[in-house]
Amino acid sequence: MFALIRATHPEPAAAVTVATGLLALAVGHPPGRAAVVTATVAASQLAVGWSNDALDAGRDAAAGRADKPAATGAVRRRTLAAAAVVAAAATLLLAITLGGPATLAAAIGLAGGCAYNWPLKFTVLSPLPYAVSFAALPAFVVLALPATPPVWLVVAGGLLGAGAHFANTVPDLADDAATGVRGLPHRLGSAGSAGVAGGLLLAATGVLVVGPAGPPSWVGLAALATAAAVLPAGWYADRRSRLGRPTYQFRAFLVVALVAVGLLLASGMPQ
User: Of the candidates 140, 114, 104, 141, which has an alpha carbon nearest to the alpha carbon of residue 51?
Assistant: First the structure.
């Protein structure tokens, strides 16, 4: 059972699920309905994580990934594949209780994650499923009210997702390339991908500041200024570091992503 949990990519899955629950409450879902919204996204995260490890088991074993249960034999690929199918079905069954538009958004988000696992991870379109799935997530939360998600919210989600793809890939470019992964970040290289990641995350933050109705708040402007300052600081720290990996830059990406998520949660019911 522990190996099956480890194969879900528990840290990012938990982060996305918790953020979804907080967003559901922030936009006005009553607790019971917020729980269903959160469970739907949790099931989707499980489906994507398990299918990813099932598909990548061979490459992970070749790369000596001791952190991957399927690569070490702690869990069978067939078990992961079956679990992914069950989780995908649970995603749709839960979403159906929230209405047709919300179900469609949940299905799009799930399809995006699965399309990244295969085949888009290996192509120049690798950022696309991240952008689609992250745009679909806040749209799903709002559609489940039911209400119409504003354009700025969907755009911010898409930018945040694409930025997360580049930021998450930068530290592992060499390992990925050695096992045949040739997504867009791998073709741009470390410096190019880092620049794109920073630009996309900063753009997402900017949209969340200026998108809601009314003038930008001082808190939002301060958050945007913080994000703009953190990115070059991380780059400079890595230039001075002897670690040989973009450690501080990755932390800077994480800070900016957290700022963007904080702005998203603070926006309340979208207008």
Answer: 114
